[in-house]
Fold this sequence. Notes:
A: 171 residues, B: alpha/beta
Amino acid sequence: MMQLPDSEALLNEITAKIAALIKPNSVIVGIHRGGVWIMEHVLANLKQDIPYGTLDAALYRDDFAQRGLKTELQPTNIPFDVQDKHIILIDDIFHTGRTTRAAINELFDYGRPASITLAVLINRDGAQLPIQPQIVGAAIPLKPNQRFQLSQDSQGKLKLALEKKQDTSDV
Amino acid sequence: MYNPQLTSEGALKHLLSIEGLPKKNLLQILDTAESFVGVAERDVKKVPLLRGKTVCNIFFENSTRTRTTFEIAAKRLSADVINLNVNTSSQSKGEAILDTINNLIAMHTDMFVVRHSQSGAAHLIAQHLPDNISVVNAGDGRHSHPTQGLLDVFTIRRYKPEMHNLRVALVGDVLHSRVARSEIHALTTLGVPEVRVIAPKTLLPNEVEKLGVQVFHDMKTGLKDVDVVMMLRLQNERMTGAMLPSAQEYFKTYGLTPEKLSVAKPDAIVMHPGPMNRGVEIDSRVADGKQAVILPQVTYGIAVRMAVMAILAGGTA
């Protein structure tokens, strides 16, 4: 059994890296759900206020025709003008890059950002697109039949678990 | 029990009527619609979900406003939309409809939005279609108009999220309304404890109480302390059938004026499915007043129709 890193330590790691990147017109966008949880922790630990939003990339996914809409679709909420903003996009796990691709497409429908930086808690490897995270808490390559599951308890504490994949489709 | 609207796994396959729609599917539509409300407020008012799909609005009965809302909804999902107004006068029912449909299937239509003056037309088409094509009922006769019912419930939930605590009154022509029945069903399914209908006896169906509603014939008692007032359109064309004395007389008794509305809760919302007969069922001071949410209903109608189409189009490849 692999020793999993402490999610609090990873959060501190990426919060510090994000803090170092923040410019006057930076904003943060979390991808539902794990990315939003992480964003909330990051926002609480940053020493400054920064505009933020949430995004569910489901409406832009490339596997909609096969899988349909998931039932727990969350509304995207971008309460600022993205035009010329430096967007720090946060997700929990980086794997194929397909969610990131969908999220980038959705952000561009709100306007033309100055830049997008991807921050993730864990990079598990396996990119199928020319997309890579710039800010990574930990790089932990996984086998194709494994996956990380991030959960949040009622006290708001994040927990990382390693699971066997139920289905073999790319997430 | 066989339900033509659902797949064997219980997923939505067609939207034909709200009756027979389990709470789970009803909530899925409303929750999904939340995600589409914001799309219209962005720079690019489109999401790519139905890119490359063809939606055919086939209207055997004219309804420009309903057709327009479906057209906008499909276009905001990036579908290609074909509008077809079919004159039914020369048609012998049934067979001719299916001939039309067969032609459109041969053109690789992915989804049909159907409006017809006869009850059950959408069901008939749904039964005829191959597995990968869906139907949305956009109104059939007096029977059903599910997306209108859904958008009304969605609007109520947006303004009054505590649905298990609400008192809702439907006012007017319940008898001829194709939404009232669906509306009552959706409201009770979602846990609204008190649904009232207020109308003269001549505009109520027989045994309306069996739908689980309280019946009133008088606005003053019926509107007392309600949270939501849903006005129904008075079908002017029915006035001739000696069902009602006159429009003026009707307005005096059942028209929603600020005075009549004042017995409802102060924060009550007023809804109307449109088109309104001002001065018949509703006073302009109410229709244009602070409590009216009639235009937000139109806006939410787009989001709800997008949600229905998105759910139907997904997972069929």
